[in-house]
Amino acid sequence: MSTVLEAAKVPYIQVLDETGKVVNPDRMPKLSDDELRELMKRMVFIRILDQRAIKLSRQGRLGFYAPAGGQEAAMIGSEYALQRDDFILPGYRDVPQLLYHGWPLYQWILFSRGHQHGTEIPEGVNVLIPQIIIGAQYVQTAGVALAFKLRDEKRIAITYTGDGGTSQGDFYEGINFAGAFQVPAVFVVQNNQFAISVPVELQTAAETLAQKAVAAGIPGFQVDGNDILAMYSVTKEAADRARAGDGPTLIEALTFRFGPHTMSGDDPTRYRTKELENEWERRDPLVRFRKFLEDKGLWTPEEEERVMEEAREEINAALKKADAYPKMTVPSLIDSMFEVLPESLKAQRQEFAGQEEA
Amino acid sequence: MALYEFRLPELGEGLHEGRISKWLVKPGDTVKEDDAIAEVENDKSLVELPSPVDGTVKSLAVEEGTTAVVGDLLITFEVEGEGNVGAAQAPTASESTAPAAAPEQPAPAQAAQPAHVAAPAASQPAAAVPTSHAREVLATPGVRKFAREHNVDISLVTGTGPNGKVTREDVEKYLQGGATAPGPADTATGDATPAAAATPAAAAATLAADSEEERVPLSGIRKIIAQAMSKSFYTAPHVTVMDEANVTALVQLRQELKPLAAERGTKITYLPFVVKAMISALRKYPQLNSSLDEERQELVIKKSYHIGIATDTERGLVVPVVRNADRKSMWAIADEIADLATRARTNKLGPAEMKGSTISITNIGSAGGMFFTPIINYPEVAILGLGRITERPIMQDGQVVGAQMMALSLSFDHRVIDGALGQNFVNEVKRLLENPRLLMMEV
Known about the structure:
Largest sheet of chain A: 6 strands, parallel
Radius of gyration of chain A: 21 Å
Strand content of chain A: 5-15%
Number of strands of chain B: 18
CATH architecture of the largest domain in chain A: 3-Layer(aba) Sandwich
Strand order of the largest sheet of chain A: 1-7-8-4-3-2
Number of strands of chain A: 8
CATH topology of the largest domain in chain A: Rossmann fold
Shape of chain B: elongated
Strand content of chain B: 15-25%
Radius of gyration of chain B: 32 Å
Distance between the termini of chain A: 67 Å
Structural class of chain A: alpha/beta
Largest sheet of chain B: 6 strands, mixed
CATH class of the largest domain in chain A: Alpha Beta
Order of helices and strands of chain A: HEHHEHHHEHEEEHHEHEHHHHH
Oligomer: heterodimer
């Protein structure tokens, strides 16, 4: 048996530094200029969507929302490394990954409002709806990945949680099971430094969250989560290894959310200092990547303005579509769950039968 | 141009109010969608409220410093095209969230008010009320805790929040005297039966250390009794006539029968005599053996004589039925009543044995009372209450003599039975009880 210390290697990966300079050319992913621009477009879109969603929420036009602003690189970069067939099991903040994996924007709006149609994921879109229970999707991911392995499908399952999620039993069960069965799974921890108001240093005595992979016997990486190229690179590598039958990986993405935990009312100024927020603003994933692209002559302020305008229009169109969607009725909610209705639900459905036409 | 009204949205989970600490716009200002229009402060944070529309500020509905509740009108805009005043409201999250949210349709969640406890029960007083999860009370955990700590059954509190959600204020209001739920004592006094004794549920009582009252949740059977009593009392206008029968001869007869009864292994009470006397009186006055079909406005006169016998049990009042009592001997009736009563007290009666009575008898005499106002076992139209038999002096043929006197109280549904008829019926019962030999002609 080898000693524990020999096994405990948790590398820290960064491709771009905070000024947009390439610091690790070996890790530079092979992406075309168009693909690089696409990454930027997506991050800009999500930033606009995030700002809009916060306002919509305050206008009472959105239900539940957990702001994504600040975490775009970790979200977009990791999703971009996936194939269409790969399956995403998200946490509640991971809406951007789902949108780019095929969940229609208007359906997300309906989901946020509690409309059951929001959760009717279109055929061929390989995602679950956002999990609200902290870390629960880690166990499910191990199961989904095991299914892919048993069926000999070349697909992987990827899941996300936050720093707080790593304190859950489900987190350990999920990564341990995945390691034991060598299933094709990628476990991402977006360490945004706060579990609602609890700072990560109070969350665990572990120096990094990535090192928890060591106990599970799987590879672990700590990544600059605000560096989209690093996120893409590490996720791609993990996904490729999983697809090749080499088992799961744990990725810790160091990042920061700019907004509150959710729009349910926490006030970040009560638990974060201005200094800390300023420090992370300097590491803004969009600023860094914009610089990188501008240096390569791939991005201009005009282009960014155009993307922002398109984003606004697309969001407005989705809002209109969501607003115009027929109101949910109790019968339609009940009908959406089962192919054959259980007796108990039949009785409940009967109670609300009059609403059918509503 | 149209008007668009903006109401305070829920700015966080469980936040149902916000203080408008500062208006950032004034009437006449032009605003774009998402422009900040006000600063709103609540328990959790201070946030800017963005405008939901492009338009011109027409009026501000609340002053700076005012605390508004979710749903309060804050500001009215003049907008191009369609507004939301007079027309359908602009869709908001809460509206499309659940069907219950739309105020214009009868929302299922609104049924989460105390009324729902009584409403479904009213039409089927004898059956347990199925409780559906779809009608559970809406309230935040904090409010539930608050209610629990104050021993308030939150399902009895009328919610004034969105979709009938119960707020802390609602619970406070309830505590301050909005309480309408009948306590166990209330039900007992309204109860015209020997079952008025305390319910065994007392064992399950919860008692806060510093509380001056004790709240005892109603048991299932107690709830059914409460519903049945209310249904009867509030449906049928009750009149009770009271009279005394000189049952000296009957008491004597019973004494004579006792050894015979002991030989047969039968416990003989006065009830079989009353049952027979009542059936005889019913034959003469069949309207009392009936029910009222309200819908068709018809009196349904029963041709069979199924006599309900109100029976006190530890769990509460039950009314087992002696079926076709007119065709049974008094011995058989005595045995049957004893058997039903025993099984009622051990909770071994089948539901069918407590259904279908056409008229009932309730006996408070065994507990000692005399006259009372029994509540009809709805949908029957009459109930005969028996009081204690007391030996006391009466005047007879100008002489003071000792007599055994039985108190009779007949309650009837005045919608279908008038006072004279009710008294005539009592007179007939009385006549037979006073001259038990006449009962022979009825067997």
